[in-house]
Design brief:
This protein is α/β, with parallel strands linked by helices. The protein has a domain of 171 residues: Rossmann fold. The chain has 9 helices and 12 strands. The strands form 3 sheets. The chain has a 6-stranded mixed sheet with strand order 6-7-8-3-9-10, with helices on both faces. β11 and β12 form a beta hairpin.
Length: 278
């Protein structure tokens, strides 16, 4: 066991957002968290990286309650990459990656030769050495995400949380980011929007609807037309990827019939309740 959520529930502004979440991500596994907007994906991830506190349940890293760890100790075990964003400060790429060394340093401690070696290695692993002297805020969205992954690597954490890291990126950058993550050899839990990409890269997928897990397992077992209809209210065709054999989802157009439902009589599922935190 590596990352384990034990009967996790989260309340925000007095309202239960996610309930009874139980999942395990094994050592070195890349697991996906999927579901419609408002289903609770970001709420779960933010609880793991301690933005929210659980109302019930626990987040365990190798059996240790994450809330029992100090901030620096937790940061040495768990790194986070969120959606591409700008920095408030005019950091160079190398300075941005060096921030990942903060959990390993005392206040106002100077960068050591070890810090520089770790940062060099992190940048080499994601292939961004050529950008070292560039200003972070001048980079493209895909380049920024690679830098944030390098920063997470510089933390030397063995667990990585990805909160929709490929959102707003083009398909080339989406695939590049996920290829890099797959090759890191760390334990990964990622919230992803593109179900076909999730199937292509994740070894296990957990599907959320209205704050609860409604399906979990391998992509082939989970990403079925029935599950997608139940979770998303969407009618899809699922075919086998010709190269990998993983599920590839093709949306069907909605053709309203006389009863207002799509042709074929498939009624849309009830939408998940709104979740401003996810």
């Amino acid at each position: 066991m590596s990352l384990h959520l034990d009967d996790l529930s989260v309340d925000i502004a007095g309202r239960r957002i996610v309930s009874g979440i139980g999942l395990t991500v094994g050592d070195g596994e890349f697991a996906g968290l999927v579901g419609p907007n408002g289903s609770g994906k970001s709420t779960i991830l933010k609880t793991i990286y301690r933005v929210h506190r659980p109302a019930t349940g626990r987040v365990l890293l190798d059996g240790t309650d994450l809330l029992g760890l100090g901030h620096k100790e937790a940061a040495r075990r768990l790194a986070v990459v969120t959606q591409e964003s700008a920095s408030e400060f005019d950091f160079t790429v190398r300075e941005m990656v060096m921030i990942g060394r903060t959990p390993h340093k005392r206040s106002f401690e100077r960068d050591t030769s070890t810090d520089h070696a770790v940062v060099d290695h992190a940048m080499e692993r994601v292939g961004c050495q050529r950008l070292a002297s560039r200003r972070f805020n001048t980079l493209s969205g895909g380049e920024k995400q690679l830098i944030l992954i390098a920063r997470a690597l510089a933390q030397q954490a063995d667990h990585l949380i990805l909160d929709e890291p490929t959102n707003h990126l083009d398909i080339h950058n989406q695939v590049e980011i996920l290829e890099v993550v797959t090759g890191l050899g760390v334990t990964v839990l990622a919230a992803l929007h593109d179900l076909s990409l999730a199937a292509l890269f994740c070894s296990a997928i957990h599907v959320l609807r209205a704050g609860r897990i409604v399906a979990a397992g391998s992509p082939a077992d989970v990403l079925t037309p029935e599950t997608i209809l139940h979770a998303y209210g969407a009618d899809v065709l699922v075919i086998e990827h010709p190269d990998t054999g993983t599920p590839h989802l093709i949306p069907r157009r909605i053709q309203p019939g006389t009863d207002g439902h799509p042709v074929g009589g498939i009624a849309p599922a009830q939408p998940a309740r709104p979740d401003p935190a996810s």
